[in-house]
Amino acid sequence: MSLATMKQAGYYTRAAGGCPAAALALLLVAAAASPAAGQPGAAERDADLRWFFEAANPEDDDVAEAALDQIAPLWRDGYAMILRDMLRLMQPPAPPRPTVNLADPNRPEPAFEYTIRREHPSTKVWRRFMKFAEDRTGERFRGDIDRLQQWIWSLPYEPHPDYALFKGEWFAAIDARFRQFFPRGVQATIRLDEIDWGGVVVNGIPPLEYPETLAAADADYLDDDHIVFGIAVNGEARAYPKRILAWHEMALDRLGGLELTIVYCTLCGTVIPYESVVDGRHVKIGTSGFLYRSNKLMFDHETRSLWNTFEGVPVVGPLVGSGLRLRHRSVVTTTWGEWRRTHPETTVLSLETGHRRDYSEGAAYRDYFSHDRLMFEVALTDDRLDNKDEVVVLQLADAAGSLQPLAIDVDFLRDNRVFQTEHAGHRLVVVTTRRGANRVFDAGDRRFTELRGDGVVVDDTGAGWRVTEDALVPEDAMRQPRPRVAAQRAFWFGWYAQFPETALIR
What we know:
Blueprint: H1 8-15, H2 20-33, H3 42-45, H4 49-55, H5 61-71, H6 80-88, E1 97-101, E2 111-115, H7 121-137, H8 145-153, H9 163-171, E3 195-197, E4 208-209, E5 213-215, E6 227-233, E7 236-241, H10 242-245, E8 250-255, E9 258-265, E10 270-275, E11 277-278, E12 281-282, E13 285-292, E14 295-300, E15 306-308, E16 313-316, E17 332-335, H11 336-342, E18 347-349, H12 366-369, E19 390-397, E20 403-409, H13 410-415, E21 418-423, E22 426-432, E23 438-442, E24 448-451, E25 456-459, E26 464-467, E27 471-474, E28 482-483, E29 488-491, H14 492-498, E30 503-505
Parallel strand pairs: 4-8, 7-18, 20-30
Antiparallel strand pairs: 1-2, 3-13, 5-18, 6-7, 6-17, 8-9, 9-10, 11-12, 13-14, 14-15, 15-16, 19-20, 19-29, 21-22, 22-23, 24-25, 25-26, 26-27, 27-28
Helix pairs in contact: 2-4, 4-5, 6-8, 6-9
């Protein structure tokens, strides 16, 4: 989500669970909410949420232990989701810190002594909760929250009846607006225990709203090899430099007369342009601060529903089941030089965004992009490719109307610059430029064989087809253009975590 998440331990322990004042605030919130109070027999069926908050008391061990004693006889393994969310905002135990003793002249080598750091107040609660989780489940997590998380995900999804309410109240200690996403009884099509806090508040990664743009000739801050995301709508082209968009992860813009929501999930390596108007309704989207399977969750300002970024559909909140789906537009990941040469009339974002950031090439997420490790756990991974290998991804409806996901390895496409395949009953051709830009088209009944040096694709009859942002356009006017298919790049782990049933070509 944000570079702040790389330092999240320091951030979230200051923001919530470790601070006695914040802990007291959480207790007051929980008492005021009284999720089980006034419901006859509720405490007999399910552990009262207040006990979980009381068990997080860092100052009064008697109160905390009494609360755990209340939870213990009513324990269900699904309650571990609550403990995990609470542990997420606490400081885990730190190993002893070695110090060098240079004062002893009788030692030929420096002696190492170990000093114990003064523990954060929340660390005591961490130990308490980990022990309780192991005692109740019979599992050994060895103080590892990721082990606990993976064990939870291995179980059927059977949460506490008020788990959503708990989630909203707990994370409201960081940002009160989080409470609006998780009211009691909220509808959801995804597991709420796979929703994780990304380390920032609501719109803490500020979206760009109708950003300033420049003509290509005026964009002297860009070098030809800098990465841009190119979008063209109704003949109007615009480049969104990665070096800018990575700091904002979203741009609300107008292009070719269309309102667009351009979403960039940096953790999953994917940029998706959506039309902002669906069924005559202008949906204003923001960044929730939460992740689902390491993929950012958007929200709409009107209903505070959470939306899945890969699919453009509401997955938590009032709009679940509404049938709303944002329309996906085409985007290409390319270099500024290649985009500018093929679209000399293009505009491009200005560095004058109204925000102060280091917009130099590669500055945002430099560390994250430099290795294959994940910042946030996901339930499923697949080792056919490395986590952050790039794939071209899309979904197409089959004959029954079900969307079928497909991923194609970018390295494979570099070696097969005109690649034809069939998926979900559709015949596709993927055209890849020398610079590695991928575009997917509906091949129809044509068989394409090669890409000429002038950028024209040739079919098996020898006819040429120009590559445009909308279609493969035949040089022979007697033939019909072959339309572009909306697709984008993503990191393999992010796509697979979302769609483990995906087909993969590599």
